Amino acid sequence: MKKNQSALIKLVQKAKNSGLFLVLLATSAVANAQQNTQTITVNGQTFKDLNKNGKLDPWEDSRLSVDKRIDAIVKQMTNAEKVDLLIGTGMPGIEVLTGPVGDSKQGLVPGAAGGTANFDRFGIPATVVADGPAGLRIAPTRDNDSKNYYATAFPVGTALASTWNKTLLEQVGKAMGNEVKEYGVDVLLAPALNIHRNPLNGRNFEYYSEDPLISGKTAAAIVNGIQSQGVGTSVKHFAANNEETNRLTINAHVSERAMRELYLKGFEITVKESQPWTVMSSYNLLNGVYTSDSKDLLTQVLRNEWGFKGIVMTDWFGGFPGFESIQSGGISDVVKQMNAGNDLLMPGIPAQKKVLLAALDSGKLSQEVANLNVKRILEYVFRTPTFAQYKYSDKPNLAQNAEVTRNAATEGMVLLKNDNSALPFANKQKEVSLFGVTSYAWITGGTGSGSVNNKHTVSLLEGLNSAGYQLDKELVDLYKPHAEKEVAAEKERRKARGILALPERLPEMKMDDAFLAKKAETSEIAFVTLGRNSGEGGDRVVDNDFNLATEEIEMLDKISKAFHSKGKKVVVILNIGGVIETASWKDKVDAILLAWQPGQEGGHSVADVISGKINPSGKLTMTFPVKYSDTPSAKNFPGVPAENPKEVTYEEGVYVGYRYFNTFNVKPSYEFGFGKSYTSFDYSNIKISSPTFKDKIQVSVTVKNNGKVAGKEVVELYLSAPNKLIDKPKSELKAFAKTKELQPGESETLILQLNPKDLASFITDKSAWIAEKGKYKVSVGASSLDIKQNAEFEVNSDITVEKVQHVFPADKQFKDLKP
After folding, report:
1. How many CB atoms lie within 10 A of CB 44?
2. Strand runs (DSSP E) across 508-618, as ranges?
């Protein structure tokens, strides 16, 4: 069964992600779509005749509110038309892979992931949605068309979040939005902000953090940037989608407290601070209910509590009991999905339409529910560039966007180690040895729907050459053909397994001691890149992935021994998307730069940092454990039974990441919030606006650059709260800010604010967020363990910040971990 399911996953995802199913583009269709609609003049006022029937219909009357115009459409729609709007237009070509699921309408943008239907009699156009989190994912080439349609590959989610810079993230969003709009797409299926519950999740590269505040603030900034361009976003995957193993069928057992404090909190921040056009429900079940069937999740929490006004769409085939069910005629519970508040079923297949239409005709699905969902989809359509007949250029600002990605990547890089100022290394006269197959076969980003079809990736080799470094030619001449051969072999491996085949680590080149001794003699420094990749559809493993492979350890040992014996430095560059083990080998090298998967300009970005042109200012948004088994969810991932997991229990409760490591005093290799700089900063003069909390409290702190070079510092505020009502983590991140670039000797005073909900924990038996009375400790510092300044304030009596309805009843009894 598992083998069969995995084969089908590859087939269906191949269709979703390859763009092969959207190869045909009729240029006349584009021209027609972009032609001006004819107009009607009434009493000297001109209106668009959207349906070209020569009269002014109420939905065309721009004097009326959008609400009234949409109501007029809904009133006239047949049940069949409503169903056509509630179910996506499918994915052309999918039938070849999944069996005869029915015809699909060709979208206007090849490589896009689907869209909504058009209705000529109302003048309602089809809209287009496309992946994904690291930039727009469309087909780069088209049949009978000599033009290219490349998009920019931006840094992956872990890299973007590590900037801790909301202004910069908004610029990244604007650049993404520019490409979405100019390529004729209406909604980008991004950002993705699931919590890093476990370091082995294959899609952690798309996500931001183990902490919901960072996740929410990062996503909100990116959404605000993208949507400022007049296109929409779909924040995903809502919610508790924290692994790829059996993702369509896995049942996640999670307490209501853990859901509300961790797994929903980032989404709440994003919805309230950026109003995304759409939210995508996830694949998994939550306490026995598919998230796309969950009224608790999609109506009570998302709409009633948070005030979300947009549409909810399923993930592709969300709510199907496994991909194999498509072939045997199984479908999602379409009535349940509609009643739950899941407006749009994606990508949509005729079998779903048939069942939904029968339900609507028979009254099994009420007109009231269908009309509400239809109305929300029409509200979305009315906002789109397609509806406004925007004449997209197919020429986004790729040069400017490349500059944005280069800058964002440098700012997200984290300097993990820098003994005796091994970095920056700015000497362009002395020879450099460049080791590691990944230096030559650079990894831009992960695989699956989070990847981008960009024109060219700048490798580290190219970046260093371009920056004027003198590279050891013999080494380059050996490595380049080796890297090319291994990349070609990897491509063949993945082709044989389907486009969504998980990437494998490329083998390292063997070198003997004498050869390395020669390199250490002639080169001033060794740069060694270690690479990791992962992707949609499967999770990472401990051996040879989270842990270094034997050949990598051997390579590091030999290079370090050879170079150190000559008094030369060894610097490791980590070209990875998620966490790896560092504790066993970090003492062997002089510096470690975590470059992440930094997008298409990655080689330039690394050169900017190692040369000192840019001072690294990134900080970790997740904990690097000493060993995998130190991770609190390690014994409950990916679930049981081990050989084919059906369920997973989040027994660690709220103790995820640093909340666990710091509360239970487990020493990490690198703690949450950690990151070094080429300069040093002094924190002083912490002030709190009041000794007692009323409606809010402000904390100010002064940061001074007391080093020799300019740099930026991330200031992190952690709160320790009283714990009489309920157990609590030792401290939790509640606010952060980044300084401007401070010159040597320059200071900046930052002001951070705490609101009532920042103080509150979710008390399940009271169904309320409560800030307990007592003493609160504010800790401000450079990481979760490197605290520089403390202050205290009092809460005089319990504050009930928010009363809510009990949701997500347990389907299995278990107890959350407590200190």
Report:
1. 5
2. 525-531, 569-575, 591-594
* Closest listed residue to residue 304, CA positions, set 801, 766, 755, 807: 807
64 CB contacts (<8 Å, ≥6 apart)?
58, 72
Task: Tell me the DSSP string of 598-665.
Answer: --TTHHHHHHHHHTTSS------SS-EESSGGGSTTGGGSS-BSTTS--EEE-TTTT--THHHHHHTT
d(CA 103, CA 105): 7
List Cβ neighbours of 488 (8 Å cut-off, separation of 6 or more): none
For residues 383 and 386, give the distance between their C-alpha atoms in angstroms, rounded to a whole number.
Answer: 9
Cβ of 465: how many Cβ atoms within 10 Å? 17
Q: Residue 576 in 3-state DSSP?
A: coil
CA distance 537 to 244: 5
List all residues 6 or more positions away from 417 whose beta carbon is below 8 Å from its beta carbon: 586, 589, 590, 591, 592, 676
Q: Tokens at residue 235, please? A: 């924040």
3-state secondary structure 774-811: EEEEEEEECCCCCEEEEEEEEECCCEEEEECCCCCCCC
Element (H, E) at 698: strand 697-705
Phi, psi (rounded to 5 degrees) for 501: -60, 140
Q: What is the pTM of this model?
A: 0.95
- The SS3 assignment for 513 reads helix
CA 261 to CA 212: how far, in whole Å?
Answer: 8
Q: Answer for the pair 551, 509: CB distance below 8 angstroms, yes or no.
A: no
46: exposed, middle or buried (Cβ count in 10 Å: 0-12, 13-18, 19+): exposed
Q: Which letter, b or e, does each residue of 657-677 get, where b requires 16 or more Cβ atoms within 10 Å of its Cβ?
A: bbbbbbbeeeebbbbbbbbbb
Answer whether residue 56 shows pLDDT above 90.
yes
pLDDT (0 to 100) of residue 102? 61
Q: Compute how many other C-beta atoms are within 10 angstroms of the C-beta atom of residue 749.
A: 13
* pLDDT tens string 405-464: 999 999 999 999 999 999 999 999 999 999 999 999 999 999 988 899 999 999 999 999
**Alpha-carbon 624 to chain mean position:** 19
Q: How far is Cα of residue 620 from the mean position of the Cα atoms in its chain?
A: 15
pLDDT of residue 12: 43
On whether the CB atoms of residues 390 and 145 are closer than 8 A, the answer is no
Whether 195 contacts 263, CB under 8 Å: yes
Which residues are catalytically annotated?
315
The answer to whether 753 and 697 have CB atoms below 8 angstroms apart is yes
Predicted confidence (pLDDT) per residue in 528-577, tens digit: 999 999 999 999 999 999 999 999 999 999 999 999 999 999 999 999 99
Structure tokens at 185: 């797409």
